[in-house]
């Protein structure tokens, strides 16, 4: 109680140790919880991955990284994640732009936001299940494509990378629309008007004013979508029909059926490192683009 | 002008794509056939009756709801003091702490789930409600933190000082001044936390058993072997829960996303 009292009466310039002493009563519970149930479990995974036969060893990593199979699975995983991110951006950006800049009725925008949140608030499993029905051999997608003559006979979607990408794009689309849309909503429309007044075409205005200003929102959305796509387990598991393996499935197998925490730990850390490195690279490229404009 | 027409068509096509699978699930849950059919052939609510008659579904709905409520309460209790400390004090390591508390947002849930399975096994908590709960608290805390933090502004701080100057105790100030001001952020953060816990599969799947299971995990295990209209009925219920949650969000704090007003 007294600690809270001193915080409200804090002088403007508190020294660092004083600030820490005052923050400590507030921080104790959250820090203790996150250390106990987040940091320590992750360290346990890391240390198990670095042990084999009771001694420190890199054997688990050798087993992961020297096996061509793992590289193939990583390639599939990140190819699916990259394709998903690309498709999500190409579909989500126009929708975000339309909802923020074109739709003038608040009621319509509100309804669209509700429809955008509805899938986001529904489990991956339910949404993937919807696509299992739609993409089946006699599902609505095949029936329609055959019916309008685009296809001669039904094609197989389930059990292909294409099917997984369709499902993941569906799951992750709302994230990018919200990220880009919220960035767009904070761009001052008078900047675009100024650009138009100075003789720029709508396209030039978009490309040189609007797009660079919402780039940070786009990058944040892209990074989120990519990491979620690369670490997705449920959607690939349901839409792959057992025919395609992505990296998170290997992790799940090790912990749920094989119980090999050493090898499983090495797989977990590998996925984590690859994802973080690619995210850092994407952030760098994105920031470079932002500075240039 | 052509660009605008193309934009309109793309936008509406994407909206249709977003809503189609949900319509298909709800439609298929009403079919009178014993296999999944869309468009539904005949209309019946029999599959919902079958679901309610199966106590394991009812139990899983109960577990999911209890877990999501407890995880949300835990997240609020952890995120609120953390947000106050981060907004109010310039202590060393603040950025690192914030990154630690926010990192569950980007960490693969499969990795965290595996880690918690191994760790809780060592603690003797393997595959228990407690093991599920601590994991869910970790993944939903960032949602509350993220939405409360921006509301703890210097202006809000000034009112808090005024309250203290006028003789209010710290508890009174928190309850009567701070809480009403951050209510919006807290509510929307809590709703996002609730729904993220309610729909989670990838974390829960490691610590559930045949008896102790959440509704998404139960659906996941079921769908891999059998697909029938009962599954569509259960899925439709979860879609309804999502819809109710969104309406609650709209009624309490309003849906301010994508709005031009800053």
TrEMBL record, chain B:
Key word Protease present: no
SUPFAM superfamilies, sorted: MetI-like
A Pfam short name: BPD_transp_1
Topology relative to the membrane: Multi-pass membrane protein
Residues covered by the ABC transmembrane type-1 domain: 61-252
GO CC term, one of those recorded: plasma membrane
Main location, first listed in the record: membrane
Ranges annotated as spanning the membrane: 12-38, 58-85, 97-117, 129-149, 230-258
Domain of life: Bacteria
Annotated family: Belongs to the binding-protein-dependent transport system permease family.
Protein name as annotated: ABC transporter permease
Source organism of this protein record: Azospirillum doebereinerae
């Amino acid at each position: 109680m007294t600690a809270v009292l001193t915080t409200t009466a804090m002088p403007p310039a508190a020294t660092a140790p004083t600030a820490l002493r005052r923050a400590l009563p507030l921080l104790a519970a959250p820090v203790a919880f996150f250390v106990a149930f987040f940091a320590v479990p992750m360290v346990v995974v890391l240390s198990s991955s670095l042990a084999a036969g009771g001694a420190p060893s890199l054997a688990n990593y050798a087993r992961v990284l020297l096996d061509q199979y793992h590289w193939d699975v990583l390639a599939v995983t990140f190819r699916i994640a990259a394709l998903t991110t690309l498709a999500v951006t190409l579909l989500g950006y126009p929708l975000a732009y339309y909802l923020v800049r074109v739709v003038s009725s608040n009621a319509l925008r509100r309804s669209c936001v509700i429809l955008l949140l509805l899938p986001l608030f529904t489990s991956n499993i339910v949404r993937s299940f919807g696509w299992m029905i739609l993409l089946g051999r006699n599902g609505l997608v095949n029936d329609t494509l055959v019916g309008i003559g685009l296809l001669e006979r039904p094609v197989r979607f389930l059990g292909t990378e294409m099917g997984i990408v369709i499902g993941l794009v569906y799951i992750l689309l709302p994230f990018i629309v919200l990220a880009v849309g919220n960035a767009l909503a904070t761009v001052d429309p008078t900047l675009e008007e100024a650009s138009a007044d100075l003789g720029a075409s709508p396209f030039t205005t978009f490309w040189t004013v609007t797009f660079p200003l919402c780039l940070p929102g786009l990058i944040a959305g892209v990074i989120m979508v990519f990491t979620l796509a690369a670490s997705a387990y449920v959607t690939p598991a349901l839409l792959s029909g057992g025919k395609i393996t992505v990296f998170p499935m290997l992790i799940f197998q090790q912990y749920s059926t094989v119980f090999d925490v050493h090898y499983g730990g090495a797989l977990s850390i590998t996925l984590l490192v690859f994802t973080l490195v690619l995210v850092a690279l994407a952030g760098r490229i994105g920031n470079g683009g932002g500075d240039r404009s | 002008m052509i660009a605008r027409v193309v934009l309109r068509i793309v936008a509406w096509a994407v909206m249709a794509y977003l809503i189609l699978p949900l319509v298909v699930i709800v439609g298929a849950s009403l079919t009178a056939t014993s296999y999944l059919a869309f468009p539904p052939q005949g209309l019946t609510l029999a599959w919902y009756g079958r679901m309610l008659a199966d106590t394991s579904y009812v139990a899983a709905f109960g577990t999911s709801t209890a877990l999501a409520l407890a995880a949300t309460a835990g997240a609020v209790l952890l995120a609120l003091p953390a947000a106050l400390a981060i907004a109010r004090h310039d202590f060393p390591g603040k950025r690192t702490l914030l990154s630690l508390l926010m990192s569950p947002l980007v960490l693969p849930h499969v990795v965290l789930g595996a880690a918690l399975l191994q760790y809780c096994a060592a603690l003797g908590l393997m595959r228990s409600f407690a093991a599920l709960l601590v994991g869910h608290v970790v993944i939903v805390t960032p949602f509350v933190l993220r939405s409360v933090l921006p509301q703890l502004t210097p202006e809000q701080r000034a009112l808090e000082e005024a309250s203290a100057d006028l003789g209010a105790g710290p508890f009174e100030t928190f309850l009567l001044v701070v809480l009403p001001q951050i209510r919006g952020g807290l509510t929307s953060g809590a709703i996002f936390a609730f729904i993220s816990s309610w729909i989670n599969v990838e974390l829960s799947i490691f610590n559930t058993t045949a008896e102790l299971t959440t509704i998404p995990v139960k659906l996941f295990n079921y769908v891999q072997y059998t697909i029938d209209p009962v599954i569509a009925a259960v899925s439709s219920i979860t879609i309804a829960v999502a819809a109710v949650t969104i309406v609650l969000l709209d009624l309490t704090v309003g849906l301010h996303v994508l709005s031009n007003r800053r």
